[in-house]
Write a structure and sequence with these properties.
alpha+beta, 7 strands
Amino acid sequence: MTAVPRVELQVRSPVAPIAWFTNPLDWRPIDRQILLGLLVLLAPGLIGLGLGLILLIAPKYLHLGLIGPLLALFGLHLLLMTGFVIAALRRRQRMDDWPAFEGFVIGSFMFTVFLTGYLTGTHFAEALLLTFLGILVVSTLGNVRRLIVAFYIGSAVLAVLAYGDVTRAWPAAPALTRPLVDADGNAVMGLILIRIALAVTVLAIARLAIGAVARWVERENLYREMSSVDGLTRLSNRRSFIERGESELSRARRFGDSPVACIMVDLDHFKKINDTHGHHAGDQVLVAASSILMHNRRQYDEVGRYGGEEFALLLPNTSAADALHVAERIRCEIAGTPVDVDGRRILMTASFGVAAYPSQEVTCLNDLLKAADKALYVAKETGRNRVCMEGMETPQP
C-alpha cells in the first residue's frame, strides 16, 4: 500500500487592509511608514513642479546648470520612494515593521528639503518649516529614536548653513541668477505658485499632525485615568488616594498643622452578598455605596476604593468631631438605601473608622491610615453598622 505523503498547510492570519479613514496611531507600524512615504512624495513633487513652472515662465531667474540636475534628483527621489512604497505594500502581508523604509523616508525628506532650501536661499524659512513640521508628524507616527537622530542632524545642517551665510564661505542661493522679484519688487509668478503649493502641503501635514497629536493626548489622558481611577466604582484607586493624602498632610504641616480627617469604610458581610446573590450583585452594591460616598463629599474631599469592599475618605480642614458626624450621616444613608438586583432587594450596611491629624498618635499619613483602620476594626468587632473614632471608648451604634 502506497503511503500518502503528508501535506501541512500553514495558515497565516489575514492582514487587514489599510483603513485610510481611521487615525494613523491605530495602524500597524508598516502602514504608518507607507503613509509617511506617500506624504514625503509631496516634497519633491510639489517643489519640483514649482521650479519647473519658474523654468517655463521666467527661466532667466534660474541657474540652468543647477536646476537640471536638481529636477533629475527629484525624479530619482520620486522613483525610489514609489518603489519603497510598492515594496512595503507587499511586505506588509508578512511583516509589521520595516526600519530601512522608515529611515529612507526620514532621511530623503530632510535631504531634499534642505538641499532645495540651500540652493534657493530659503533654508531658514520654507525649508526649516517643512523639515520640523515633518519631524512633528514623524514624532507621532514613527520611531522616536530615529526622530531624535534626524532632529540633531537637521540642527547640525542648519548650523553649518548659518555659518556659510554669516562668513559667506559659499554663495547664497546658487540656483538663482537673481532675486525672484521683478522690477516693481513683486514676486514672480513661479515663486507665488511654489508658495501656494507649499502652503497646501503644510496645511495637509499640519492637519495630520493635529489629528495624531490629539489622539496621542487622548490616549495619555486615558492611561493617566486608568492608573489613578478604579475601573468599577470610578473612585480614586489606592495609589492615587495615598498620593493625595501625602499631599494634603504636607500642606497641613505648611499651614500650621491644619486638621485632616480620614474615614475608613468597610461594607458589612460583603462576602455573603457575593455568595448569595452572585458577584454581579456584589459589583452593583459596590457601585451604589460608591455613589453615596461621592454624594456626601465636598468638592475638595478625596474618596477612594482602598481595596475590595473597603473605601477611604480624606477630608482636609476637618476635625475628628466633624468627620464623626460625616461618617454617621453616610452610615445612615447606606443602611437606608437598598440595592435592587434582578428583582431582589439587597440591604447593605457599613462600618466606619475615623481618625484625624494632628493628634497624639498621628503624625504622618501612615499613622492616620493605621488609626482609622484600627477604629474600623473596633467598629466591626463590636457589632458592625456603626462608627468608631480613634480614642472613642464606646462606638456609636
